[in-house]
Amino acid sequence: VSPAAERLRHILGDDDNVPTPTIFTEMDTLQHEGGELEWKESARWVKFEEKVEEGGERWSKPHVSTLTLHSLFELRTCLQTGSILLDLEGYSLPQIVDDIVDRQIADGLIPPELKEKISFVLLRKHRHQTKKPIHRSLADLGKSSNAASKLLLTEMSDSPTDHSQSRSMNDISDTPSTDQLKNKFMKKIPRDAEASNVLIGEVDFLEKPFVSFVRLAQATTLGGLTEVPVPTRFLFILLGPHGKTKSYNEIGRAIATLMVDDLFSDVAYKARDREDLIAGVDEFLDEVIVLPPGEWDPKIRIEPPKKVPSAEMRKSVMNLNELGQMNGSAGGAAGGEDDEFPAPHELGEELKFTGRFGGGLWLDIKRKAPWYCSDIYDGFHIQSISAVLFIYLGCITNAITFGGLLGDATDNYQGVMESFLGTALAGTVFCFFGGQPLIILSSTGPILIFEKLLYEFSKSNDVDYMELRLWIGLHSCLQCFILVLSDASYIIKYMTRFTEEGFSSLISFIFISDAIKKMAGALKYYPINRGFKPDYITSYKCDCIPPDQSSVLGLNVSAPLSDDNMTLLVSGKKNNYINYTNWSQMSKKECVKNGGLLVGNACKYPDLALMSFILFFGTYSMTVSLKKFKFSRYFPTKLRKLISDFSIFMSIMCFVGLDMLMGLDTPKLIVPTEFKPTRSDRGWLVMPFGKNPWWWYLASFVPALLVTILIFMDQQISAVIVNRKENKLKKGCGYHLDLFWVGVLMAVCSFMGLPWYVAATVISIAHIDSLKMESASSAPGEQPQFLGVREQRLTGILVFVLTGLSVFLAPILQFIPMPVLYGVFLYMGVASLGGIQFWERIKLYLMPPKHQPDFSFLRHVPLRRVHLFTLVQLVCLAVLWILKSTFLAIIFPVMILGLMVVRKLLDMMFSQHDLAWLDDILP
């Protein structure tokens, strides 16, 4: 351990947990213009450096400060030889300047006769970048020239004036000006920030540099000293003889850069003497990386990095001996990731095995109860509106699609209306009382296949389907309660990234393939008329034929209208047909409504399939583009963020508008308009007795077991994915509480004859993405930091209440084309693949090594081992996909358990070191 690091251990070791304020640093240089002296702002720092451009009219782009090594050594010398005043009691700049100069005289650094000259220079007016030279008034010019003449008189007499005369030479204002108070730059600085002022200048009355570093006991607003009205805590003054302008500027930039360094600013606040400050500089020097002068252009400004490594590693007393590790070792950052050795798989206290009856459930209730009120009022934010609109559209599309498929599978015992009501009821109850309200409940593919098989079994064995289903639901509810009370969710601790990513990738691919399949179906229902020839457009016609005429002629919708047929039709009156209406003048809708047939080559529209694909890909592409708009260079930050938050809603509105403008008959959203069961011979309540033999009530325990495994695995894997540490959730989760409510809802939905519901992975991930929060007041050049997710219950509740009300919104919803909603489905599927390491590793197969991103696992695991691990995951995914596509999809949950077994077997193929980087070490 270096002596500097050892000294810093003692300074920073007794940390009082009081956060160090953000420091805003301003560097002013002394300007000589026609005998007039004035301090002019030349650079500023919050995190990164901004310079006043040579033209003096604007600030440069924020950039990483590139310092010369020589300037840092010169700064160290300045701190060794200059005066250091720590915890100075100061309330105004003149008083502080007096104390600084008196200390220099007392230390024998300057002769007493220079006091007035130095004080005069230090109390000149400060011109900030907000004030342009052209705006200076005649009174200011007169005042400045008057002050300059006084300076000349002082220099000529070369004798100290009295105290009152010195004070009359003050040119700096005592209170902040209007420009300072109105400066918009304040928005970029945190509220608790304090200022550090660096004053650099050349004067002709000094023979050696005048250096002083001051820390005030209390941060004080010193009038016109700082560009923004931020209280000053630190002052660094360097005045020296002529001829070293560049050297002085570099020293000023060096101390300014140090002041915004997280570790040095801590040292500056806690330093007890000169040696502590020098130790802080030495520690900074230990970590400085030097760029060789012949291998880069010093004129190039280095862009701020997208992610800055955490300063906690440097501040940690335990890790001070590891400071200064270079790129490629465990201390640096790689590819935007924290390149520390990954911690073993840890799901925390939420899945602790209590060993008590219902212990886990009780702990979940205790954990979530204190947050309940904040879960409601945290939802009152504009971001919640965009999340509600996005997830609502996803939910109703899912409910309609699933309801339609369920209606086909169960002969309309459950249909779109049951799907809407069930989604609204189950979702609302879960979001009100569940342990993780960010989870969105929905129906899943395996449940649909189970329902289909159960209906076919009931039909072939003369068993009442709804009554049997009710008993399966009740047994499954009971089994869920047993799992909850026995802390069975503990098994999820053995689920690593390998299983999570396999499951979430599969669900994402299902969403993507379903969206594309549905669009491919558009070509079947709305085929492109390949026989359409523009040159023969004059011969195309489409006529509406009365039903009697069409049956006489044996015509169908697609039959072309020949001349012979037309002759027969013209003489149709001979067939004693009384023509009350003019069929030839009817619209397409009227013709079909009255039972007529459309006949002719022009009856087929070649546009609908093409228009559907334009709506589909247009919605997806526009959503992706607008989502990324917050990283654009155009428009203010707030507007960019608003556009990004409402990207899905704006895309949907845009393409719904385009569809209405075109007026084409594209497939639209069909919502039930009456509140009644899909099948007329069933009510809203299923009776448990009377239709099946008594032994079926007991036998249904066996199929219920399969449903329970399905529910348990689907629910808990989705919960693990939602609660993963990357989402930075702060309110904890409730695996046991979630499963308890899913069990309750199983029983309720079974009694009402509604579909069964479980956590929907893709929609839940989309819900979390739509509620992500980023730091608001980021410093210039600093990328907004991901702060976590807006955890609340309000968005979920509103989504499901709106889903229930959709029956009454049918007149509005009927204008939304289905291809637009399939575009939203495609976006959900693709977006949920983002951030999955498995997906990044698949892309590595297609990249030459020199173009591969600098991922942390590539630094520590050989590429062939990475490819082998990815290949195993791909094979598992392919097996799951094949199973899902057949009747074996009913054992899908058991296959998820199989993934956990495969992961255990990987311990034999890979070392624990490799698995730690590629996956998680099993507990």
Structural account:
With 923 residues, the chain is α/β, with parallel strands linked by helices. Among the domains are: 7-14 and 24-56 and 63-129 and 173-288, Mannitol-specific EII, Chain A; 359-507 and 675-810, no CATH class; 836-922, no CATH class. It has 36 helices and 14 strands. Strands 1, 2, 3, 4, 5, 6, 7 and 8 form an 8-stranded mixed sheet that branches. A hairpin with a 2-residue loop joins strand 1 and strand 2 (36-45). The longest helix is centred in the middle third of the chain and has 29 residues, at 497-525. The two termini are 35 Å apart. It catalyses: 2 hydrogencarbonate(out) + Na(+)(out) = 2 hydrogencarbonate(in) + Na(+)(in); 3 hydrogencarbonate(out) + Na(+)(out) = 3 hydrogencarbonate(in) + Na(+)(in). It is found in: Basolateral cell membrane; Membrane. This is Anion exchange protein.
Keywords:
8-stranded mixed β-sheet, 923 residues, elongated, Mannitol-specific EII, Chain A, alpha/beta, 14 strands, two-stranded antiparallel ribbon, single chain
